[in-house]
Design a protein that fits this description.
The termini are far apart. It contains 10 helices and 8 strands. The chain has 257 residues and is of the alpha/beta class. Helix content is 34%, strand content 18%.
């Protein structure tokens, strides 16, 4: 595969980076990323992932745009209120770069349908807002042997972690949070509030990590950071990180599974 003169011009600022180069840009064009959730994290993340030239994007969200979303969900405007996020997001991507292959799902994610949404992907980026969905996505990623990048944000704090529980010795997202959580365990931004720019910081950092993972073995952009969670603090501001060990008793990726 080679890049056309138009694509070379479009991605020239990537290609001149030794850490990406032409080989990296071609690799991104062959990748398939599933983006779960098109809200405060998914909206800005999608804009940078599409801008990076990731060739196939599957966009998953069953929600509709609300006026309260506009403070942080950068894909949408007032004309979109009441319309489905997945449809609007696909329209944005096709207008931004018609060469990208965009698929959508506006079904609510469940344990039953999550495997069909992630199968065959090179990476899943989950920016949803409840543990039930996150765990369903994580378990499906382990079962289908797809790496997972998990991103979350609230108030002035965020976290981004990379998981590859299908690999020996690597933790999954369930190793991190355990089995006890369900949809009622998540605080909502409606209750606690959220700085819009904080969602953008977490989203763009997640997009950066996604590109790093997708280029693993192709470029020198850096390690995949499997099992490492990065905490972003918007009040200090600052960042720190810690490692998650694989739980041998994990019901998804441990020896019990």
């Amino acid at each position: 595969m080679s890049l056309s003169p138009e694509r070379l011009d479009r991605f020239a600022r990537h290609i001149v980076l030794p850490e990406i180069g032409g080989a990296g840009q071609i690799a991104l064009a062959k990748k398939h990323l599933v983006l779960v959730g098109l809200g405060g994290i998914g909206s800005p993340a999608l804009q940078y992932l599409a801008g990076a030239g990731i060739g196939k994007l599957t966009l998953v969200d069953d929600d509709r745009v609300d006026a309260s979303n506009l403070q942080r969900q950068t894909l949408f405007n007032e004309r979109d209120i009441g319309h489905g996020k997945a449809v609007i997001a696909k329209r944005w991507v096709t207008g931004f770069d018609p060469e990208l292959d965009v698929q959508i799902s506006d079904r609510r994610i469940t344990v039953a349908n999550a495997p069909d949404l992630v199968i065959g992907a090179d990476l899943v980026l989950d920016g949803t807002d409840n543990f039930a969905t996150r765990l369903a996505v994580s378990d499906a990623c382990v079962a289908e042997r797809v790496p997972l990048l998990s991103a979350a944000v609230g108030r002035f704090q965020g976290q981004v972690g990379a998981f590859a529980g299908h690999l020996a010795g690597e933790a999954c997202y369930r190793c991190f949070v355990g089995d006890a959580f369900d949809a009622e365990d998540c605080d909502t931004c409606a209750e606690d509030g959220m700085l819009g720019a904080m969602a953008g910081w977490v989203a763009t950092f997640a997009a950066m990590q996604a590109i790093r993972i997708l280029l693993d073995g192709v470029s020198a952009l850096g390690d995949t950071d499997w099992g490492r969670v990065h905490l972003l603090d918007g009040l200090k501001p600052g960042m720190r990180s810690f490692a998650i060990a694989k739980d041998p008793a994990c019901s998804a990726c441990g020896s019990a599974a």
